[in-house]
Amino acid sequence: MYRLLIVDDEKEIRDGIAESIPWREMGIDSVYQADNGAAALEIYKKHHPELIITDIRMPGTDGLEFMENLQREESQAKVVFISGYDDFQYARKAMQLKAWDYLLKPVKTAELTTTVMKMIHELERETKEHDDAWMNVLPVLQGKFVESLLTNKAYYNEALFKEKCKQLKLEWLDYLPLIVCVIEPDHYSRVAPSKKEQELLSFTIDNVLKDITRKYGEALVWPFDKSSWVVIIGLSSHNDNHYELMEHILSINEDMLSDISYYTKTSVSAGVSSVSTEWSLLPQLLEQSLKALTNRQFTGGNKVHVYESTPGVLQDDGDTFDEFAFLNGLRNGNAKDVRAALSGLPKLMLTFPAGADGTVSRPCFEWVLSIHRLLEQANLLTFSATESFRLWQTIEQIETIDALKEILTEHFVSLCRQTAPSIGGILQKALDYIQANIRDKITLEDVASHVYISPIWLSRLFRQKMDRTFLNYVTMLKIEEAKTLLAQDVKVNEVASLLGYQDFAHFSKIFKRFAGCNPSEFRKQGLERTLP
Fold it and tell me: What region holds the Response regulatory domain (predicted)?
């Protein structure tokens, strides 16, 4: 809706113009009046009307002087002059001031209506052009703003940040929980050796990321450098359950990697930060995601690496000892990964404070015990006091870090041989529990509790051993159970209810994704196959 200002020293003329034309039907919801140019200027400064109808000759500040004042205000309002004087000098001055039109009194209602409608159409055209130009430049401005946030290139207080977000249509940065992901092709220089190939790969990845992030609602893609991209995602469906939230975050990133790999025929890795509700922590989230991505050198490419910290274990510096790969290798009985991670053990031990004997034997032994405790908490292994004492007797005799590394590498590799069989048993027990309770609402935490391991570890176990997420596996079994029930002539809506789906439309959508058709079509196909 637009605003109109009528300026004339004769009240009857002002009222006549204000009341004789159905302004609201034309898209004008506010009509202001002023009896001279000075009063009109004050109204303009307060209400900023887009349309102005003004007389020329008035006491005090006349219409021409009023328009000159408007130009000093850099006004974009459309102005039409009305005058009882058919004076060429007045008309020429009005045109010099870029008036929209010059009408002679008495002005006919139809003539004034037509003139104002033309002004409105011009405003609409200008607004569209402005909006189109703004939408073209908006992604660039958003990228520069996000870059300044991530790299601390500019300071923003709370008020300035909110104002900037509103201007750039990024309000979600202020109220949604945020994660930062760094996406990077594996072996970039190998898969794109020439500049032309690099440009094509970068163009494709950039477009695929922008395309897929649109379906997650609030997300922004920013090219970090020529071979990596930063994706900031606002978690609009934020779940307070940490483990289900992690599943959701992993699913988003795996979708991105899958689409990029499909279109570029190149494997891609992602580093993912923790979740934060503070926009001011974006630089730290970027640092976390970059640090998480360094795990690629130990666990291989084409994976999502999530930044995590494990309580009770000393943290690596991101360049040497890879704690994540080490613990993952131990839990999965993967001796190769354990050996690879422990290649950085000497630098980790250099961070240990020397004991009273001037060596790191004691703090090193305490670190080993902390790893033992983690394995015990995961119900993978148990360690007796005698075993721990014998290990200490061995460690305390060692005088060099390299020798300690060799002893501890063999110790942890030997543990891998013991944890490997346990993994299969734990996973099978989890699968049996899911199968037995497939008609119930099954959560990651329920199954983890049943097999006495942490939910996050069970989630990883499914990805590594089953090559699918926990949620995907449970859903797949539920759909197979649904097929069995449908074949037994159970009503479709009853099938959904039996399997824990309260929303039938949601159940039908999931069924079609896994089975290729909706439940009713599946049943019809089954009946057709049984007909003679």
Answer: 3-120
